[in-house]
Amino acid sequence: MIRFVFVFLSILLLSGCWDRKELKEIGIVGAIAIDKDPETGEFILTSEILNPAAQSSQNPSPGKPFLLETTTGKTIFEALRKTNQMVDRKSFYAHNKVIIVSEELAREGLISVLDSFYRGKEIRGYVWICITKETSARKILEAENVGVSRIPANFLKNVFEQTASHLNSVSTNMLTFYKDALEAGTNPVAGVLLLEEKDKDKHSQKSNIRLSGAAMFKKDKLIDFLNESETRGYRWITGDIKTGAISLPTDLQEGKFVSVDVVSMNAKIVPDVKGEQISFSIHITEEGKVTEQQATVKFNDSKQQIRFLEALEEENKKVMEEEIKQVIEKAQAFQTDIFGFGSALNKKYPEIWNQVKDEWPERFADVTYSLHVKVNITSSGLMKGPFKPE
C-alpha cells in the first residue's frame, strides 16, 4: 500500500508543468516604449515583438526579425492587454530587456507608470529603464540603425551594459530606480537616449541611437538632464566606475593629448556635523594607466618621465574636481540629492537626519563640501618614452 501511494504521488509530481507556454503560442516582447497622448491624456504603448522565424540560423524568413505594435489605454495595463487584440500570439514579457519612457511622461513621475510592471511581476526587476530626450519613445524603436544587431531591444541591452567600459552615460534598472526614488536621502538617475541623424541630407530617414549623459530625478519626477561632463562628475562621486578613458592635454607638445584609462577607483562620502552646520567631505582615489601618447618628444632621462607622470596626475585630478563641482552645483540648484549625501548622513548621524529629513532638499541646496581627490598613474605604458620617427 505504501509503495502504491509513493508511485501515485510520483506520477502527480512528474506530470510536467501544467502552466507551461509553448514557443509557438507566445509573442516574446523584447522592448517597450511609453509615450503619452497630449490631447486625450492616454498612454501610448509600443511593444517590440520578436519574430523567431526571421531569426532562424538555418532557414530564416525574409521578413523583419520583429514587429512594432502600438496601443493606447487609460492605464499601462489596459494598453498592455490591448496588444493581444492585434497580435496572434499572447504577449510574453519575461524576456523584455528595456522600458523606454518619453521625456514628457517622465516629468510627470515614473512610479505610477512602472507600477503595473512592478506589481504584476510579468517583467523582471533588472529590466533597463531609460528616458528619451527631444524625441518620442516609439521613435527609438523605429530607428533603422541599431548597430550590429538586427533587433533594437538587443542593441539597447548591449549599449546599457557597455556603460561599464566608459564614463559618459549611466544605466539604471527598475529595481535600482525604485530603491533610489523611495529611499530617504537620495534621488535616482537614469540613462538618456538620443536620436541623431546619420546623414545631413534632410530627406534621409536614417538615424542613430546614442546613450549619452543622464536624467536627473527628484524622487520619481524628471527634473533635468546631465551632459556627459556632468555625468562623469556624478559617477566620480558615486564610485560607479570600473574603467573608462580620459583625454588630457600634454605639456610635451602643444595640441597633443594623452589617454589615461581608469584601472580602479574608490569613492566615499563622509558627513560632518558641528552644531547646526552640516558639511560633507568627498574622498576619491583613482588608479590609472597611460594607454596613448600623441606627443613624439622623447624623455631625456627617468626624472623627466617621473615629472611628466606627476604633471599628468595633477591634470587628471584637476579635470575630476572640475566635473564634480559642476554636477554638484547643478544638483544643488535643482535641490535634488542624486549622490546620497542624505543617506550618508542618516547612516552616521541618524538623530540629526531625523531632524532635517523633512526639509532636506532645501538643506542640501546649501550644504558645503570639501574634495579630496588622489590620482595615481601606476603604469606609464611608455616603455622608454614616446615614440619618435627618426
Fill in the keyword field for this structure.
GMP Synthetase, Chain A, domain 3; alpha/beta; 10-stranded mixed sheet; 12 helices; 4-stranded mixed sheet; 31% strand; 390 residues
What does this structure look like?
With 390 residues, the protein is of the alpha/beta class. It has two domains: 23-226, no CATH class; 233-390, GMP Synthetase, Chain A, domain 3 (2-Layer Sandwich). The protein contains twelve helices and 14 strands. It is a lipid-anchor. Keywords: Coiled coil, Germination, Lipoprotein, Membrane, Palmitate, Signal. InterPro entries: GerAC_N, Spore_GerAC-like, Spore_GerAC-like_C, Spore_GerAC_C_sf. Belongs to the GerABKC lipoprotein family.
Short summary:
By secondary structure, the protein is an alpha/beta fold.
